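Annotated sample (chain length 259).
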Amino acid sequence: MERDGGGQRRFRSHRRGIYGFLPPRNSLYSAGCLEHKVVDFAIQLAVILFAISFHESAHAYAALRFGDTTARDLGRISLNPLRHIDPVGSILVPLLLYIFSGLIFGAAKPTPVDLRNTKDPRLANLVVSAAGPLSNFLLAALGLVAFAVIRRLAPDAMGQLLEALQGNRFASGALAPITYILFFFVLVNVMLGVFNLLPIPPLDGSGVLLSLGGAAVARAFAAIRPFGFLILILLITTPVLGKLFRPIQGAVVRLIFGA
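Output written by the structure step:
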């Protein structure tokens, strides 16, 4: 929450774009040959673009439910990635990071939300902020249900998936492409949801905490907001974020394989 020139309180009138990443590859899955890497990157990028489109659409739809039509009027309630992607943040940055570190990281265009159009700006900010990460968790849950069905009806497909994740080539089974895409579909959506719930401006977690907290929280976020992006860069380029997400990633993998 900020104050305008007349001293009146007002909520920030926009949501920042999603920031998402997939942690660097570990011993579970590593790409070796160039062909595998190209296909692997294309699959992960496609999954991320869909995930951020769903995420941003959730923000826009939640705002619409509270009476703000800003994002809807700009066509942001859409699964078309072209409505949400930023050429640099969504394409170039993920490509360069994948080449040099195996890390997938991207940012979408901000979804504009004017909370002044809502009857209860504080509640609207809470719901709009949480809608994006929750949408990713919903997608991940659907993916886990699909894996449960595959494990039951075609258990050999899970072994083929493990072969593809551990080796330099894709397995030859009929379900191999589906399970490989589904693996990253689940993992990416979980990581995007968790990452965006971190209480660091401009991530969604800061909006959630701001809505739940009082004036002290608002003052704290106002102080660190100018440094928010720098804090994110430091988290991504140091082992801190990897240590935070490694157990989450491991838990997701165990859920996928039913271990």
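Annotation: The first strand starts at residue 2 and ends at 3.
Annotation: Residues 1-14, 26-31 have pLDDT under 50 and may be disordered.
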